[in-house]
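Escalated from tier 1: alpha-D-glucopyranose holo job.
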Amino acid sequence: MIYKYLYGNPFDTEAVTSEVPLAEGALPFGSVDTEDGFCFTFIMEENDIVYGLGESNRGINKRGYCYVSDCSDDPNHTEDKRSLYAAHNFILISGNRNFGLFFDYPSVITFDIGYTRMDTLQVTCGSADLNLYVIEGGSAPDIVKQFRRIIGRSYIPPKFAFGFGQSRWGYKTEKDFLDVAEGYRCRHIPLDMIYMDIDYMDSYKDFTLNEDFNDFPEFVRKMKENHIQMIPIIDAGVKIEKGYDVYEEGVKNRYFCQREDGSDFVAAVWPGDTHFPDMLNEDARKWFGDKYRFLTDQGIEGFWNDMNEPAIFYSSEGLEEAKELARRFAEEENTVHVWEMGGKLQSLANSHEDYRRFYHNVNGERIRHDRVHNLFGYYMTRAAGEAFERIDPNRRFLMFSRSSYIGMHRYGGIWTGDNKSWWSHLLLNLKMMPSLNMCGFLYTGADLGGFGADTTRDLLLRFLALGVFTPLMRNHSALGTRQQECYQFENTEDFRHVIGVRYRLIPYLYSEYMKAALNDDMYFRPLAFVYPDDRTARRIEDQLMLGNEIMIAPVYEQNADGRFVYLPEEMKLIKFLPDGTIFEEILAKGIHRIDVALNEIALFIRSGKCIPVADAAECVDSIDYGTIRMYGYEGAEYTLYNDDGIHKDYDNKENYTVLRK
Ligand code: GLC
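Tier 2 regenerated the structure:
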């Protein structure tokens, strides 16, 4: 059962796509106070677990901390952070009673989940203008499914997007990209995508190419002939530059976000001063989306959208204030402290003051940005998604974004932003996965190896061993960090093998992804969703169920040669060994110490189930389904999903085949 409670005059985010009947009177759970802003309060029972919040910090169980939905470009994901890039305002309370809550509110909203008082859940926001959806159900998975149904089908990428991708901030010329392709192909390490970060553009101008690309369509074609898709980045800010068509058109048609006085708002991002296309304005959105044709017309089939919180390094106003302070700092002795000066400079980026300096035009109504801040990334990706529908309604494009809000899951996936080459981030990224799935985001993954800071060979291998299972599997790193392509390290055959296991598992992973997407289901689940009555399973946060057949338990500590794993039922361990063979062993319910070397991948098949495993391949196109062998329990059946991976022919019964072990 789903009820919708309406408070005040909410902004229509279009997160929910189904009609949900309006409820009146008191909520079935907790209480609401609208005296001063909005405040929802619920007293939790000791054993209640709180799930949800999608891309957010800390654990799968969100209890014990305070989270703030406030899309932020913050590359330091330390344990104390309350906001990351996304706003996924869905939580699920699971205990003696199970219910879900979706706070459809596009500005700052705080989830105090037993932080101020250990037994109290309190959700607060500045204005009492929102839709609150309350979902009742018999179990946690049932509530997620009901929620997913009202927010619409999750985005489905083309099949090549299940391959492995290499990225790095700094690749600039054709040669840089060819070197990466060669680095992988000559060592036979599988690869399907190379990502193009901002340097492929001319002066960081969206929808341009730098002078090194003489014949881009030919370059893209040649790469595709080698089974490599080129995936360019698109940033939110449009460079201010006379004569640059995107800038000129945006100014002329009033498509950029404006200040109160009607002038175009100026924010500095990578290109220097930019304007933000008004993604919430339908005409501007259509215009911006159609710009992607510049690249699709040249053969490009996938993109990543970035800096769309939107990230602001500083605004013109902010810079002026800092300069004025600097003048006083320099000229008027002892009036401005060094720390005040430093603080001012540091607070220029992503300042809430700037969010109050510009407006959107939504169907003729002016809406100040801070009121709808968390929608910007969603609507940028929607701009692209709607354009892809116009370009070819039956074709799938790869698309994922950094910033997001629930609703964006229909148009693209997300990556989890600028993590670091830290072991703790491997575990953090694992924990985010089921929470993201609850909120509709299925095509997700982290920067494998870590984006910021220097990786190590063992960290990259362990990160990849998690990435083998995440729908988005991409190695990405920041400018200035240690070279992180797999071929930069010794014994590249280990990388060939680990990534090769991904390709051996694609028949299974793709099937489970498609089943999850087509049935509003989860691809990754916490163990508690499958074994709700198992007290130990309910608290496990470093193992995940993947699809309907397997459990994974990645190693996330340096120098470990294995780990303890809890099996909530008898399972069959299968381990992909570096010589290409597969070790199998049935293990009883309980705790086991499992050896997993750096070059091995282990997974656990649930009792009575089986999975398809193909031979390794160097790209998705060359996976030979004829080589599939079934692993798991004798007599088990598996429903394989396969299609051409390009078109949207999802409802065709021929996509399904039953395989037997
Ligand atoms: C942002 C992105 C990162 C990208 C960089 C340069 O930090 O999150 O992935 O490499 O910008 O474009």
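Residues 169, 197-198, 233, 306, 402, 417-418, 476 surround alpha-D-glucopyranose (CB under 6 Å).
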